[in-house]
């Protein structure tokens, strides 16, 4: 619901400014307005200027089964549910935290990240465990709880430092095996 509200506000702001006709990142019609985001996780991790795209929004209110045009086809339904990258790391966090294997936790997700982000994870003594690089058009990156050699990390308290788009976020992760 929060994504829908944020997306609605973004689209309303663009509409108020009369910018719909000046951007290729929106698909709009009488009953719909959809933000189009690059889908860089399909086949390659570099940002694309064409090719596969994700539509953030819902086409269920279009009133017919599909929307099609010269270069696109959208089937009725929820098209996508992930957030685009954030402008800064102010709201970045990790979940689940604590990560408890007894509750099925096999990895954690860092979310609310910028387009490009580097996540360094350290032990309590300051030894670097692993570096996770994020370079795609969603706002999250995962860590499989393995160190840079591929071994599972032990239970304990770990620190993380996320750097992206000129901002830094620090925090703690608890792993319980």
If helices are DSSP runs of H or I spanning 4 or more residues, what is the number of helices? 1
Compute the average pLDDT: 73
- The gross shape turns out to be globular
In CATH's first tier, which class of the largest domain applies?
Mainly Beta
Largest beta-sheet details: 5 strands, mixed
- Taken together, the total number of domains comes to 2
Q: List how many beta strands DSSP finds.
A: 14
By CATH, the topology of the largest domain is Immunoglobulin-like
Rg value? 19 Å
Low-confidence stretches: 14-24, 38-69
Strand order of the largest sheet: 8-14-13-10-11
Give the name of the CATH architecture of the largest domain.
Sandwich
What is the helix fraction of residues, given as a range?
under 10%
C-alpha end-to-end distance: 34 Å
Task: Walk me through the structure.
It is a single chain. This protein has one helix at residues 2-16, and strands at 26-28, 33-38, 53-58, 66-68, 73-75, 78-80, 93-95, 99-100, 108-111, 116-122, 128-135, 141-143, 156-164, 167-176. It is mainly β. It has a 5-stranded mixed beta sheet with strand order 8-14-13-10-11, with no helix packed on it. Strands 1-2-3-6 form a 4-stranded antiparallel beta sheet. The protein has a 3-stranded antiparallel beta sheet with strand order 7-9-12, with no helix packed on it. The protein starts with a helix and ends with a strand. It has 2 domains: 2-80, no CATH class; 93-176, Immunoglobulin-like (Sandwich). 8% of the residues lie in helices and 40% in strands. It is globular. The protein contains 1 helix and 14 strands. β1 and β2 form a beta hairpin.
């Amino acid at each position: 619901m929060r994504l829908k509200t944020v997306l609605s506000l973004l689209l309303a702001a663009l509409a108020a400014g009369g910018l719909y006709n000046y951007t290729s990142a929106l698909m709009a019609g009488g009953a719909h307005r959809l933000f189009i985001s690059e889908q860089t996780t399909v086949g390659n991790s570099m940002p694309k200027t064409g090719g596969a795209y994700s539509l953030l929004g819902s086409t269920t209110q279009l009133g017919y089964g599909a929307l099609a045009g010269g270069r696109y086809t959208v089937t009725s339904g929820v098209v996508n549910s992930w957030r685009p990258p954030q402008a800064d790391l102010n709201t970045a966090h990790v979940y689940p935290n604590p990560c408890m294997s007894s509750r099925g936790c096999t990895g954690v997700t860092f979310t609310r990240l910028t387009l490009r982000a580097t996540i360094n994870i350290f032990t309590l003594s300051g030894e670097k465990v692993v570096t996770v690089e994020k370079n795609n058009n969603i706002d999250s990156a995962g860590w499989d709880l393995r160190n840079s050699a591929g071994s599972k990390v032990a239970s304990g308290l770990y620190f993380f430092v996320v750097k992206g788009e000129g901002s830094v976020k620090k925090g703690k992760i608890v792993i319980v095996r």
